[in-house]
Amino acid sequence: MPTIFWILWSLVIGQRMIELAIAKRNGKRLLQMGGYEAGAGHYKYLVALHVFFFAALAVETSLLHTEPPVWWPAACLLFGAAQVLRIWCISSLGVHWNTRIYVLPGMNRVRRGPYRWISHPNYVVVSLELLTLPLMFGAYMTAAVVTLGNIIVLRHRISVEEAALNAASLQP
């Protein structure tokens, strides 16, 4: 696999590490403000999916010597758009952005940035990344398997997050 794959693969992993640090900091702040974590039981599956994603992507591209399709620029543009949307999501949520589900009793939902139009734009970002990064390099099996796993995990996560947000907003 070309060097560009390993550079991008490493950069995305680095980005994830930075995001985990931001999430940890935000989580501590939310707990100090009286918040709590909801649905912690499914988090390990979310983490496992993302670890599997990076491992599968590396293995498929290396062992099967995949090649970027002729339409790789389209996947690259979608991936880039997802990065812009990711930054917008994180900055719009501020301290409320997290990889876990933290809520503050009595808080209102954030309705700025992309959250004005859709409830969970960050999940759109993640879904686009998990699909487009493998497609850029012809890793079709990774794209298919991880996208299916992501749909399963997100269906549960979004229902847990919605319930937690609704419950928190009803509390005084």
UniProtKB/TrEMBL annotation:
Its main location: membrane. It is found in: Membrane. One of its GO terms (biological process) is methylation. Keywords: Membrane, Methyltransferase, Transferase, Transmembrane, Transmembrane helix. The chain crosses the membrane at residues 47-64, 131-153. One of its GO terms (cellular component) is membrane. The keyword Kinase does not apply. The keyword Transmembrane helix applies. Signal peptide: none annotated. InterPro entries: ICMT_MeTrfase (IPR007269). GO terms for molecular function: protein C-terminal S-isoprenylcysteine carboxyl O-methyltransferase activity. It is a multi-pass membrane protein. This is Isoprenylcysteine carboxyl methyltransferase. It comes from Paenibacillus thalictri.
